[in-house]
Amino acid sequence: MTSSPTGTPNCRKVTGWSSYHRSREVEMFVLSKDPIDCTRLSRELDLPAAGALVTFEGRVRAENEGRDVLRLEYEAYAGLAEKEAQRILDEARGRFPVLDIRCQHRIGLLEIGEVAVWVGALSGHRGEAFDACQFVIDELKQRVPIWKKEYWTDGDSGWVRCEHCAHPHGHQET
């Protein structure tokens, strides 16, 4: 495993694109404590064969399930999160004719309005790019060990949808 210039471990780098792909190394999935630069990430997804770029930005919202949210905190089991996220990106490549697909997820404390997760899918046509982008974010939320804690304006806090956190290895008791 390698580290980015900021010291954040990267899951995997890909090289050897076909003739219309960039030949430089590309980070496919990144966990980062730094803010996500959506504009830069979108600009990096630019290939002559592409007819569509679809991006998803998951943002910190001020309300959830009737409670006023002050901020969020994300924690991750980095090594496993990176491996599972890369599997999801690989699955998306196998299921949809995308030219490129990437994801970045924040960890640490995030304020209202900040981007917590970014997914970008590049394809020849919009349908495949939309489908791939939705597949990645849906699978990421279900499978990747990244946990979200909400801090509410009333001073309380709690982990969101973390029923599996109480059970070893995410399995329900039988």
Write the layout of secondary structure elements.
Layout: E1 2-3, E2 9-10, E3 13-14, E4 26-27, E5 29-32, H1 38-44, E6 52-59, E7 63-64, E8 67-76, H2 78-95, E9 98-106, E10 108-111, E11 115-123, H3 126-143, E12 146-152, E13 157-159
Parallel strand pairs: 5-9
Antiparallel strand pairs: 1-2, 3-4, 6-11, 7-8, 8-10, 8-12, 9-11, 12-13
Helix pairs in contact: 2-3
What's this model, at a glance?
This protein has 174 residues and is α+β, with helices and mostly antiparallel strands. The protein is built from 3 helices and 13 strands. The strands form 4 sheets. Strands 7, 8, 10, 12 and 13 form a 5-stranded antiparallel β-sheet that branches.
Low-confidence stretches: 1-25, 166-174
> N-to-C SSE series?
EEEEEHEEEHEEEHEE
Mean pLDDT score: 84
The portion of residues forming beta strands comes to 35-45%
Radius of gyration, in angstroms, nearest whole number: 17 Å
CATH class: Alpha Beta
Q: What CATH architecture do you see?
A: Alpha-Beta Complex
Number of helices: 3
Global morphology:
elongated
CATH fold topology: Aldehyde Oxidoreductase, domain 3
* Number of DSSP-assigned strands: 13
Helix/strand-derived class?
alpha+beta
Integer count of domains: 1
Helix content: 10-25%
Main sheet properties:
5 strands, antiparallel
